[in-house]
DNA sequence: AACCTGACTCGCC
DNA sequence: AGGCGAGCCAGGT
């Protein structure tokens, strides 16, 4: 089990209609400082369609500017399609959709 | 094999 | 309050 695998497992656990921050993912796999690795892992996204990387946002709810599915706007559309609301064109309504308790995968 | 960089976050100054 | 450095892992040069 590599760190990347843990990241993918954690991301797949995000319920539909909810979002999680890189920090939440990192914390779930053991170290919140891994947030950077989380981003890198999703950047490589080896299994698109399986790994809902569009449900992962920065700690303030802003979507990544380097989203690779067709632009950040595409990510926003996907989230809206799941019932996620936005406080801003690029900021997810964390107060309503942020995952409160992401299970630890250690 | 070492160094640099990257979808991040937090703690100091 | 805003800017800067540190810490983490993997992959490319």
Describe the protein:
With 106 residues, the protein is mainly α. Helix content is 39%, strand content 4%. It contains 5 helices and 2 strands. It has a two-stranded parallel ribbon with strand order 1-2. The longest helix has 10 residues, at 3-12. It is globular, with a radius of gyration of 12 Å. It binds a DNA duplex (13 and 13 nucleotides) through helix 2, helix 3 and strand 2.
Q: CA-to-CA gap between the ends?
A: 10 Å
Q: What is the average per-residue confidence, as pLDDT, rounded to a whole number?
A: 90
* The CATH H-level homologous superfamily: Winged helix-like DNA-binding domain superfamily/Winged helix DNA-binding domain
Unreliable stretches:
none
Could you tell me the number of beta strands? 2
List keywords for this structure.
106 residues; mainly alpha; Arc Repressor Mutant, subunit A; two-stranded parallel ribbon; 5 helices; 2 strands; 39% helix; 4% strand; globular; DNA-binding
Short summary of the structure?
The chain has a single domain (3-97), classed as Arc Repressor Mutant, subunit A (Orthogonal Bundle).
